[in-house]
Amino acid sequence: MTATFKTPHFRTQWNVDTAACLMPRVNVADSDTELSVYVFLPGVTKEDVTVNVSDERVLTIKGEKKRGEQPEGLKFQRKERRFGAFKRQFYLPKHVSSENIGATFENGVLTVTLQKTQPKTTTVEIK
Amino acid sequence: MNRFHFDPRDMQNFQNVAETVAERLGDIFNEVGRNTRAATSEQQGKSKIRFDIADDGENVYVFAELPGVRKEDVSVTLNDENVLTIKGDKKRPEADEKNFTLVERKYGTFSRSVAMNEQIEQERITAEFRDGVLTVTLPKLVPVTKEFRVNIQ
């Protein structure tokens, strides 16, 4: 079951197979030349995330959030953090190139940089 | 029709919703905001920090999710009333000139406090920041038992 949700510039493809609490939160900044997608993934390491763009121009960010190294024999008083597989998908807007996509990971934030393309107008000469 | 068939994943979602509700209720009773209503309104419009709190007998560990926050923008304090406060500022990644078209996680200041159940050895508290998760290690105060043996004559 996949639903689509429309934001003015960036359409999200909601996946019901990712639990809502594991759905990474995303901020998108729009500048003249590029679109920066900030995906908040606290506790996730670079090795556990993949970013790809399909032929249908769907940007997919997926991976797994693991507990990682922790002292042994922990008894939890409070558990608010969620762990497991996550996935989030977006349709690339028309004015964004599906090539030259950059990605960096720092302090639990994945930054995906998408280049904007200049709108092409072809003038047809009338003979 | 397809929409209403039973899917085990829906159950998972239901469980998550139930857990979230339980969490929020837990917050009302455990959170240090003495005035519950004030604490709730303070959280509105701010990103809530998710906490895991654990105990291994020797130390209490607080794991706080702070993605995109820099080490120098966070402060960790423990007051006289044994209340741990993690607060700071989540700054925008770059200059404000960028126009944010989608904001699911707000930028700005955040603060969350939690009362420690155990007495803590304040001088030995340590904190480490890795991959957007702050781990605070709070060594428990070992009560010094003074025993004085009385000779029976």
Explain this structure to me?
The complex is a heterodimer of chains A (127) and B (153). Chain A is mostly beta strands. Helix content of chain A is 0%, strand content 47%. In chain A, the strands form two sheets. A five-stranded antiparallel sheet of chain A has the order 1-2-8-6-5, with no helix packed on it. A four-stranded antiparallel sheet of chain A has the order 3-4-10-9, with no helix packed on it. The N and C termini of chain A lie far apart (51 Å). The N terminus of chain A is likely disordered. Chain B has one domain: Sandwich (Immunoglobulin-like), CATH 2.60.40.790. Chains A and B meet through strand 3, strand 4 and strand 7 of A and helix 1, strand 1, strand 2 and strand 5 of B. Strand 3 of chain A pairs antiparallel with strand 5 of chain B, so a sheet runs across the interface.
Could you name the key traits of this structure?
heterodimer, A: 127 residues, mainly beta, Immunoglobulin-like, five-stranded antiparallel beta sheet, four-stranded antiparallel beta sheet, 10 strands, elongated, disordered N terminus, B: 153 residues, alpha+beta, three-stranded antiparallel beta sheet, 2 helices, 20% helix, 33% strand
Q: State the secondary-structure class of chain B.
A: alpha+beta
List SSEs of chain A in N-to-C order.
EEEEEEEEEE
User: What composes the largest sheet of chain A?
Assistant: 5 strands, antiparallel
CATH T-level topology of chain A? Immunoglobulin-like
Shape of chain A: elongated
> CA-to-CA gap between the ends of chain B?
90 Å
User: How far is the first residue's CA from the last residue's CA of chain A?
Assistant: 51 Å
Classify the helix fraction of chain B into a percent range.
10-25%
- CA gyration radius of chain A, whole angstroms: 18 Å
Concise account of the structure shown:
By secondary structure, chain A is an all-beta fold. Chain A has no helices and ten strands. The N and C termini of chain B lie far apart (90 Å).
